[in-house]
Write a structure and sequence with these properties.
This protein is mostly helical. The protein has one domain. Strands 1-2 form a two-stranded parallel ribbon. It is globular, with a radius of gyration of 20 Å.
């Protein structure tokens, strides 16, 4: 984890430092550096901050706290992510309206219970473009929209606490945008609009990687989308719910798993979010055997591209039919 942290932080920061020196005059070099930084940003998001905010990076709470701020460094907000991901997504996985990961804008349909529009017929084609833009939305407006929503839901204990979190979010975003966009526009001897396009290319790489990886775990044909009963309860126990709504993929690819922070072992992560992802591969055999022993599903796609194909299929079916057509 320490080696990965150093590598991913350097992969993100070194290209940006080079850009901020003002010595880059080539457009192709500018785009290459931004895109390289985008891979580092994705690595930080999937392999460092994700474990840290789950308190599974280290036994030391301070280490987890400070490494969780790497999410703030890349422009998002750790406090908002903790609510959206740790609390809502991990508690109410694939439950419409409760799980924010499946509550996208109206032009995307991720559950069979969401209203279907005509445009959804083509979502299996255009969704990938919007995946690429997801982190741009995240670091600009989405955090603030969610902060306001979570405040109404009672996640911020009082007005003073909310105001402090809001000011910290604004401060961190100013720091991040200064590093990745404002200073480069000032010092790099290339037209500002080209720098903005290079900045967007960095985020497109990051957004496409992160969003695709997370979507492959839940928006696939064998996932279930349970609804609460009239009293607000979900049938069954929490652990079974995680197994029915989550899927693994590409378990044999160690290099790929290293880069994406073990998120190909999403079942293990959802059942044991307080365990560091470096242990998921060995734990997976125990989890799979236990699931079979108790007659519970253990969904697994053998390769990344198989999972991509299944997600594509699910997007298409959700776009063309009402109800749950993919069993």
């Amino acid at each position: 984890m320490i080696a990965k942290t150093v590598i991913m932080c350097l992969l993100y920061l070194v290209p940006l430092v080079v850009i901020n020196t003002g010595i880059v005059e080539s457009i192709w070099l500018l785009f290459s550096l931004y895109i390289l930084s985008g891979f580092g940003m994705a690595g930080i998001g999937m392999g460092i901050m994700h474990d840290a905010i789950h308190n599974s990076y280290s036994k030391n709470s301070r280490v987890n706290k400070y490494l969780g701020y790497t999410l703030n460094l890349i422009g998002a907000n750790a406090s908002v992510w903790r609510i959206q991901h740790n609390v809502l997504h991990h508690t109410f996985t694939n439950v419409e309206e409760a799980d924010d990961d499946i509550n996208p804008p109206f032009f995307l349909r991720f559950t069979p219970h969401t209203r279907r529009y005509g445009i959804h017929k083509f979502q299996h084609i255009y969704s990938w473009f919007f995946y690429g833009l997801s982190t741009v939305s995240w670091v600009t407006v989405k955090d603030f929209v969610r902060m306001a929503r979570y405040r109404k839901m009672g996640f911020f204990k009082d007005q003073k606490y909310f105001s402090n979190e809001l000011m910290k979010a604004i401060m961190w975003k100013l720091i991040s945008f200064s590093l990745v966009l404002i200073v480069p526009i000032i010092v790099v001897p290339i037209s500002w609009w080209i720098i903005v396009l290079a900045f967007l290319s960095m985020h497109f790489v990051t957004g496409l990687l992160i969003t695709t990886v997370f979507q492959l775990a839940h928006i696939v044909p064998n996932s279930e989308y349970p609804l609460p009963d009239e009293n607000g309860f979900i049938e069954g126990d929490w652990a079974s719910h995680q197994l029915m709504t989550t899927s693994n993929f590409s378990p044999k690819s160690r290099i790929f798993s290293w880069f994406i922070g073990g998120l190909n072992y999403q079942i293990e992560h959802h059942l044991l979010p307080n365990v560091c992802h470096v242990h998921y591969r060995k734990i997976s055999h125990i989890v799979a055997e236990t699931a079979r022993e108790y007659g519970l599903p253990y969904h697994n796609k053998h390769t990344f591209f198989t999972a991509i194909g299944q997600h594509f299929k699910m997007l298409r079916q959700l776009g063309q039919k009402d109800g749950l057509s993919a069993g």
